[in-house]
Amino acid sequence: MYDEFAKFYDRLGWDSYAKELWPDFKKYLDKAGFKPRTMLDLACGTGTFCIGALKDGIIVEGLDISEEMLKKAVENAKSFGFDIKFHHGDMSSFHLGKKYDLITCTFDAINHMTEFDKWKSMFNCVKNHLNEKGVFMFDMNTLKDLNDNWNNIHIRKYPNGDYYISKSISFGDSAFITFTAFLKKEGRLYEEYEETVQESSFSLDAVVDELKCAGFKDIRIMNRKFDVVEDIYSLDRAFILCSI
């Protein structure tokens, strides 16, 4: 699953989300006075968010369901001289036998789990892997986002000749998107890769209720800049922070 993504993910610049998000999140943590010593990044992909945390002195590990993504993550970490421990596993049912101060899951990775029971299972797994007063942060595409923004065809071409086509269709609380990437080779030759994913979303009220049931407290729904918003249902992407 998602193994094709690994072949073009960083090359098409999709790692930029994590590169840009980590500094903003770190500023929020500093402002809140929370200084995590250890961190686990779920659905870590090619490891960019982990690398950002490690650069700031946090002992970090990552977990992902795609072996190819993890291979790329190892390569990326080594390119910075880092040796990060990456785990192959499912974020809805992981058992690592240790606890962390901070657990994260970003870039709407949670939406790739299309059954709400898996969200519930993930919340419980996260709680069981958090130290006392530990923090859990994740972002999710909201129902509003899937309804408003997921019926389109988008084409992007890059200066080096690469390009991709994305085609998405929404069914309300669920949506599908197909990425077809064409990576430039010599002359007029291209390598083609294609990956289709499904995303599902659920009401923010239901998500908060399940977090409470799992034992989380101080649940905050925030925007991309980690500001609390009054109208949470205006958000296309919600950032949720909570603690135990």
TrEMBL record:
Record-linked CDD domains: AdoMet_MTases (cd02440)
Start and end residues of each Methyltransferase domain: 40-134
Recorded superkingdom: Bacteria
Gene3D superfamilies given in the database record: S-adenosyl-L-methionine-dependent methyltransferases (2.20.25.110), Vaccinia Virus protein VP39 (3.40.50.150)
Coiled-coil stretches: none
PANTHER family associated with the record: CYCLOPROPANE-FATTY-ACYL-PHOSPHOLIPID SYNTHASE, FATTY ACID C-METHYL TRANSFERASE
Descriptive protein name: Methyltransferase type 12
